[in-house]
Structure formats: C-alpha cells, structure tokens
C-alpha cells in the first residue's frame, strides 16, 4: 500500500456503507477524517482504521443540525486540513404513510440528507477550487429514481441528491473537481432499524439485501474513475431500467406494493 498523504472526509463513517467506504480508502493509503455522532464508536473505528497505517481524525458532530456542519469545516481549517475527497454518506429515512409520520422527524431527515450535505459540499468546493483538484462522492440511492410510498420523504431527498449532484458535476467539469453519485439498493445495514422499517415487505427476503462492502467497492471504483454515477448491483440496474420505462404512477404503485407492511403479525 502506498500512502497518499491526502485526507478523505467521510460522514456516517462508523456503520454500514460509510464504514465500508472508510475501509476502502484506508486500505488504499488515504488518511481519514471520520464523522458521526457517537464519540465512543468513532474511537473504536479510528483505532481499527489506524491498523492500515494511515492517520485518522475522528470528529463527533450531529449533522441533523446545520450549525454542526459549519463547525465541522471550521475545525478542519483550524487544523490546516484540506480534504482531497468528500464522502457524503450520512443519511436516514422514516417509514410509514406521510399522514401518520412525525413531521419533526421528517424535517430532521431533510436537514441530514440534504442541508448538511449542501453545506459540506459548498465549503469543500470553495476550499478545493483554488487547488484545482478534488472528488465528491454523494450517497444517492435507487430510491432517487422512483416515488416511494411508505418512505416518501427519504425517496424525495435522494431524488434531490441525484439531480443536484449531476448539476454541480456539469458546473465543475473544467475545475479539476469531480462529483460522483452512488446509487445502492436495499443493503444489509442498520438503516432499516433506524427508519423503523422492519414491517416492510422489502425486508421479507433478507438474503436479497446487498452487502455494504460490495456497494462500497462499487462506489470507490466509480469515484476513482471519475464516473458521474454508479447503480450498485445488477438487480438494481434492472429495477431502475424498468422504472425508467414506467409512468411515475405505475412506478409509485409498484414501489408501494414492495414497501407496504407485511400481513404477518
């Protein structure tokens, strides 16, 4: 392994796809700035990543709050750290019909999935433009491609992430900064527990869930190859192709059938 002497800033780095992405970068010689809320878990993961022979800085931030996104970048500047790569992984969902779900929880999710990502990316781009280099990996989802009954706010936030990522990629095309969107499908992480989604039919066949490591490898390779986006997994590529051939109302109905609660008690 060759040390790159470049920092990667990764949000949501202590679990799921974010954790697996952090491992990919560490294995390939990148120093890490890992961000999550749980200080103890950050320390455990930092100790693990350091075994790859890289520097690891852990910063505890609650990215449901926009001021924490600003303060994260202030801390980096105070320590003269200019990450070469930004990975916006942190994100959550909430399950249920919109009429029944908690609006405060949904506003928090919009702050996490969209607002904090906008702030961190804006600050990253302004920092990297004078240097003429940089890479951004944004966690979108195959959910970005279809309306999502029973998971409507999450699907909508991911549609925003994908559209916005493709727009700023075009704006930055002559700057040396690239933007890549990673679109996983249902993946074997703690996401569904946090979304209180255990009743959903989509989880009936746990064996069909993707491995977070495989998703992370797809995302890492797409980022390094400067691809605009990557749909992770053949099954997800096929489902997106099918959605593209359907009307929005048909796609929404199909997704409702996939995501509605199971009949089982």
Describe the protein's architecture and organization:
This protein has 9 helices and 7 strands; from the N terminus they run E-H-E-H-E-H-E-H-E-H-E-H-H-E-H-H. Helix 1 (16-27) packs across helix 7 (212-224) and helix 3 packs parallel to helix 4. It is α/β, with parallel strands linked by helices and 265 residues long. The N and C termini lie far apart (51 Å). It has a single domain, classed as Rossmann fold, CATH 3.40.50. It has helices spanning 16-27, 39-50, 66-78, 103-128, 152-171, 191-194, 212-224, 234-245, 248-259; strands at residues 7-11, 31-36, 56-60, 85-88, 134-139, 177-183, 229-231. It has a 7-stranded parallel β-sheet, sandwiched between helices. The mean pLDDT is 92. The protein is globular, with a radius of gyration of 18 Å.
Relevant terms:
single chain; 265 residues; alpha/beta; Rossmann fold; 7-stranded parallel sheet; 9 helices; 7 strands; globular
Helix/strand layout:
Blueprint: E1 7-11, H1 16-27, E2 31-36, H2 39-50, E3 56-60, H3 66-78, E4 85-88, H4 103-128, E5 134-139, H5 152-171, E6 177-183, H6 191-194, H7 212-224, E7 229-231, H8 234-245, H9 248-259
Parallel strand pairs: 1-2, 1-4, 2-3, 4-5, 5-6, 6-7
Helix pairs in contact: 1-7, 3-4, 4-5
């Amino acid at each position: 392994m060759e040390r790159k002497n470049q920092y990667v800033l990764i949000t949501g780095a202590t679990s799921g796809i974010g954790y697996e992405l952090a491992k990919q970068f560490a294995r390939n010689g990148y120093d890490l700035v890992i961000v999550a809320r749980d200080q103890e878990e950050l320390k455990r993961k930092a100790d693990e990543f350091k075994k790859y022979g890289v520097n690891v800085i852990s910063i505890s931030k609650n990215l449901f709050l926009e001021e924490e996104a600003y303060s994260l970048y202030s801390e980096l500047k105070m320590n003269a750290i200019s990450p070469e790569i930004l990975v916006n992984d942190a994100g959550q969902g909430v399950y249920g019909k919109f009429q029944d779900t908690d609006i405060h929880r949904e506003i928090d999710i919009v702050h996490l999935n969209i607002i904090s990502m906008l702030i961190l990316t804006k600050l990253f781009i302004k920092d990297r433009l004078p240097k003429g280099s940089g890479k951004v990996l944004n966690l979108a989802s195959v959910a970005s491609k279809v309306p999502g009954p029973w998971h409507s706010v999450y699907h909508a936030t991911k549609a925003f992430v994908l559209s916005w990522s493709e727009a700023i990629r075009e704006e930055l095309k002559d700057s040396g900064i690239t933007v890549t969107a990673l679109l996983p499908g249902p993946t074997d992480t703690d996401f569904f527990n946090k979304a209180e989604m255990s009743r959903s039919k989509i989880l009936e066949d746990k064996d069909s869930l993707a491995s977070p490591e495989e998703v992370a490898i797809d995302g890492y390779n797409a980022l390094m190859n400067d691809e605009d986006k990557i749909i992770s997994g053949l099954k997800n590529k096929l489902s997106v192709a099918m959605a593209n051939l359907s009307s929005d109302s048909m796609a929404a109905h199909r997704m409702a059938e996939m995501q509605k609660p199971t009949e089982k008690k």
